[in-house]
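Weekly sync, protein design subgroup
Attendees: M.S., D.O., the rotation student, P.L. (late)

Item 1: inverse folding check
M.S. brought a backbone from last month's batch and wanted to see whether the design step gives back something sensible before we order anything. D.O. pointed out we never logged the input encoding, so this time it goes straight into the notes. Structure tokens as presented (94 positions):
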């Protein structure tokens, strides 16, 4: 059981660190997760401003919050598992 407890603890740390790295790497969007982002463009011929949409994965704060909740859940399950019993030694008669 001790091994399972440490695996859950390690997995929860890996999840939260990975989510933080992904969230920061993709721009740390403080809104909702998006699959497209508006990009302001200028038409070369007319000079008129326009908006085009860039496709991609842009994780928001909800992505990071879900990872934190999952990590917390795994870490909490660790406390529900029984602790490993220590091996008892034979007592000597006196």
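Designed sequence read out in the meeting:
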């Amino acid at each position: 059981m001790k091994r399972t407890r440490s695996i859950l603890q390690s997995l929860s740390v890996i999840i939260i660190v990975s989510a933080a790295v992904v969230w920061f790497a993709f721009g740390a969007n403080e809104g909702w997760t998006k699959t497209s982002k508006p990009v302001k463009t200028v038409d070369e011929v007319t000079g008129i401003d326009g908006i085009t949409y860039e496709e991609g994965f842009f994780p928001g704060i909800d992505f990071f919050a879900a990872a934190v909740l999952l990590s917390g859940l795994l870490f909490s399950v660790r406390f529900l598992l029984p602790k490993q019993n220590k091996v008892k030694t034979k007592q000597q008669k006196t």
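Discussion: The beta strands are 34-42, 49-58. The chain has two helices and two strands.
Action: P.L. to compare against the previous round before Friday.
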